[in-house]
Amino acid sequence: MATIVEMPRLSDTMTEGTLAGWKKQIGDMVKAGDALAEIETDKAVMVFESFDSGVLLAVLLTDGDTVPLGTPMAILGKAGEDVSALVADAQQKIAAAKAGGAPAAPKDEPEEDAPKDEPEVEAAKDEPKVEAAKDAPKDEPKAEKPAPKAAPKVAASAPSKDPAPAPTDADGNRIAASPLARRLAQQRGLDLAGVPGTGPKGRIVADDLDGLAPARKLSARVGRAAKKVEDEVVRVTQMRKTIAKRLTESVTQAPHFYLNITIDAGRLVALRTELNDILAEQATADGGKPLKLSFNDFVMRGCVVALMKHPLVNSGWEGTASAAGIRRFGGVHLGFAVALPDGLISPVIRDAQELGIVELAEKTRELAGRARDGKLEAAEYQGNSFCVSNLGMFGIDHFTAIINAPAACILAVGALVEAPVVKNGQLAVGQRMTMTLSCDHRVVDGATGAAFLQDLRKVLEAPTILLV
Amino acid sequence: MADATESYDVVVIGSGPGGYTAAIRAAQLKLHTACIERAELGGICLNWGCIPTKALLHTAKLWQEIGHGDQYGFIVEAPKVDWTKVIGRSRNVAKRLSRGIGSLFKKYGVTPIEGEARLERPGVLMIGERRIEAKHIILATGARPRPMPGLPFDGDKVWHYRHALTSTAVPQRMLIVGAGAIGCEFAYFYNAFGSKVTLVEVAPKILPIEDDEVSATLERSLTKQGIEIRTSTRAMDLRVDGDVVRASLVREGQDPLAFEADVVLIAIGVMGNTDGLGLSENGIVLDKGQVKIDRDCQTSIAGIYAIGDCAGAPWLAHKASAEGVHAAELIAGHKKKPFDPTNIPSCTYTEPQVASVGLTEQALKAAGTEYKVGKFPFLASGKALALEEKDGFVKTLFDAKTGAVLGVHIIGASATELIAEMTLARTNELTEAEILGTIHAHPTLAEALHESVGAAFGEGINF
Q1: Based on the number of CB atoms within 10 Å of its own CB, is B446 exposed (0-12), middle (13-18) or buried (19 or more)?
Q2: Pair B21, B324: CB distance under 8 Å
Q3: Which of A450, B16, B59, B427 has the smallest C-beta neighbourhood within 10 Å, fewest atoms?
Q4: Hey, is B54 helix, strand or coil?
């Protein structure tokens, strides 16, 4: 008896999946547990291991097909079995599913979305490896294909009527170049200065421009693309769809307000240097690789310490308008945004209050690494009670972040900068760091958030407390 | 008493337009230079080619004009031709020029050496017993007419161009084999003086290297003048039979035509003068009788160059001179880029004349190049009307994107003079903008060039 393989649920938030490629071919024997296909979920491309055994008799989807959960994908059975009726039936279902008909969604699908990804981005220290969506679907839906190009007007393809202007070098001296070379330079965006000319008296001729890269010189042409490129509609990945959906919900449902502080990070800088020296010595003694604490590690630890004193901030809005509730989280489940090549994700450190700063830093590295490899379990990026997003490494002084449900607050951390400070009536060079707390007003009021920030400032400006 | 060995920086073998130009240029560049010639200074071009034929062709044109005297208001009754004088003037022009080369050599300090040179080994030439050392040798030995297989030239019934230049009478019936420039020019010339000319060409059109439209226009014009043109046709079984020449004209798919003429002119091309010079013996690579050279005119042996007809097509005097200058300057240590062969203009001195530079429209189509084409007929040129020269047109081809001059094709009066402007434009990479921005005097035939460029870009005024 043939078995119909359906689009599986590979992440508990996915509602549809995209076939990224088959791992078996028609006629192959498939055993339960064999990799059957790669499926792009809302989070990553995952290997789908078959639940059933049999010979692969038919594949019903091609690469790039996106279908709701439960939609037939393939048929397994005995070699030689006639499955044409099943195929016809399955194809009808697929057609209905693609046409937007009700997906054959499993009944146990939770209505509320599990929290997962975040608005902003954490430090991407190393160039992240591309893992998600490695095979972007190539065939675009017909409707998205650009309309056939209209025949170019004669005028558009004609060379400019006027002679190309005589080029000059940086000092305004005329550069000897043939009219054709000048026009080619103009058309290709090339700078003729410094091009060795092989024409009479070193004049630049068309051949001399072969293989030249577009000009770097700042001129009136700067920023003008050498070539016009047609608009392109790119099909979005599941991850991007999720980002779009969740952040839109957050902004439209959670009334955001923002609180801003700038802290004196002088002592934080000193402490970090001291701790990193100790860690380096330890690593040398153990023969291991030293962990290097980042400012963000201190900020995260500072948040944990401050949140323990402010359970009203370590909360989240829950439920619907008719049955509303606020969840006071029992522990600090600290989310932090990690940039990925084609999106972002916020791993969550559960019960972060149980971790010292070094453990917290190690856990952060470990989760961020797996996030970049696309290997996070759903539980590892869901259910944050508070979130930190840091764009300091990009030189961003301050910014605001969108709250990542179910948490009620997110802290947007800017760069640590040297700035003039006044101490005891004296002007001095100090270290400053600006942070912005986005609060969901349904949960946190202005004074609540401000009190939290006051304590956060206190612990970051007297950071030895973070080590306790 | 032992002869002191003569020694030169550069020795040029041959004093045709390639050789004498190379020698003079080398001498100008302070190289101690000699030029060896076995016959008359000036080579074929001055003595037997370009110049004397142009003298004859000019005579033919004037003769045609006299025939049309009434349209100008001349009453010329029963004009007659003194054939001896026609040929005589042509010879005199050649002689004058050949003497001119002698004085130029004197002026620039080129040592002329009479005799037949042989390469002893690279760096050493022998003329008989005379030994000449040369740091650099430039072969400029030219070419000679290629005979039809089994039919040697005899100068009586079987001619090459040289016989056509010096004939003592106008043949009644003339068969010309080969409709390249030489074939077409003599067809025009002898037809003008009353021969019944039949022009046979293997290719599907006359002037096979020219643009299709030009070839077709010239074919119409020559036919109208009375020449019988047979393209896609082979002259087979050519033989002399008593007083006549017989041939079988074979066109694919048709019955062979038995043909009879008083004289046959063979104009199927030339072959390099590369024998007896000791070239292959010294390891100089030849290819089908021509010296093989690179784009810098260097042969396979260092220090030995070859230029002009002995080094292959196109067999044009101005190509030989350009190569001569190039080789001399390289020897003098100048850094020079080889010239682009498509910048060599090609000219045919029939009436109407044909001249072109660059690529033909069919070549552009074959290459898939996007181009713009402009055409201007001389019928629309005031100056052409004034001159009674309404035949022909100017056709200009431009790169559609860059405006580069890709090809220019002129058929009409003075086409061979008019091509100079477009050769300058193409060689120096002018675009349509510079040509259109150049004021052309009125009334001139050159205005037709301007108009043709305008037509290519939708800016034509007078047509």
Answers
A1: buried
A2: yes
A3: A450
A4: helix
pLDDT band at A377 (very low <50, low <70, confident <90, very high): confident
Boundaries of domain holding B76:
6-145+271-341
B463 in any annotated domain: no
- Residue tagged 């979005």 (tokens): A236
Q: What is the CATH number of the domain that holds A323?
A: 3.30.559.10
Residue B290: is its pLDDT beyond 90?
Answer: yes
CB-based contacts of A171, cutoff 8 Å, min separation 6 = none
Task: Give the amino acid at A52.
Answer: D
Q: Which residues in chain B have Cβ-Cβ distances shorter than 8 Å to A160?
A: 433
Residues of A in contact with B399 (CB under 8 A): 159
Q: Is A54 inside any structural domain?
A: yes
The interface residues of chain A toward chain B in range 172-211, judged by CB-CB distance below 8 A, are 178-181, 183-184, 187, 198-199, 205-206
Query: Across the interface, do A184 and B402 touch by the CB < 8 Å criterion?
Result: yes
Q: Would residue B303 count as lying in a domain?
A: yes
pLDDT score of A38: 87
The mean pLDDT of B113-136, rounded to a whole number, is 94
* Option in B372, B400, B431 nearest A183 (CB): B431
pLDDT for residue B395 is more than 90: yes
Q: Does A270 share its domain with A317?
A: yes
B109 plus B140 within the same structural domain: yes
Q: Write out pLDDT tens, residues B297-312.
A: 999 999 999 999 999 9
Q: Is B179 helix (H, G, I), strand (E, B) or coil?
A: coil
Contact pairs from chain A to chain B, CB under 8 Å: 52
Q: How far apart are CA A264 and CA A277, in angstroms?
A: 22
Contact B404 A180 (CB under 8 A): yes
Nearest CA in chain A to B406: A180
Q: Which of B372, B429, B433 is opposite residue A161, by nearest beta carbon?
A: B433
User: Quick check: is B442 catalytic?
Assistant: yes
**Number of independent structural domains in chain B:** 3
Q: What is the ipTM of this complex?
A: 0.80
Q: Is A156 on the interface with B (CB under 8 A)?
A: no
Which residues 301-320 of B have a C-beta within 8 angstroms of A? none
Q: Which domain holds residue A319?
A: 239-467
DSSP-derived secondary structure for A11-49: STT-SEEEEEEESS-TT-EE-TTSEEEEEE-SS-EEEEE
The DSSP letter of residue A153 is P
Which of A7-21, A254-268, A282-296 shows the lowest mean pLDDT across its residues? Answer: A7-21
Whether residue B402 and residue A187 make contact (CB cut-off 8 A), yes or no, is yes
Same domain, B299 and B327: yes
- Rounded Cα distance, A192 and A209, in Å: 8
Provide the CATH number for the domain around residue B302: 3.50.50.60
- Which pLDDT tens digit goes with each residue over A139-167? 444 444 444 443 333 333 344 556 777 77
Q: Could you tell me the end-to-end alpha-carbon distance of chain A, in angstroms, rounded to an integer?
A: 65
Chain A residue closest to B335 (CA)?
A: A198
From A163's Cα to the closest Cα of chain B, the distance in A is: 5
Do A353 and A439 reside in the same domain of the chain?
Answer: yes
- Which chain B residues contact residue A161 at CB under 8 A? 433, 457
Q: Is B178 found in the same domain as B58? A: no
For the stretch A12-47, pLDDT in tens is 777 888 888 888 888 888 888 888 888 888 777 788
* Same-domain pairing of B81 and B134: yes
> Residue A379 domain-assigned?
yes
Contact yes or no for B15/B43 (Cβ under 8 A): yes
Looking at the complex, does the CB of residue B404 fall below 8 Å from at least one CB of chain A?
yes
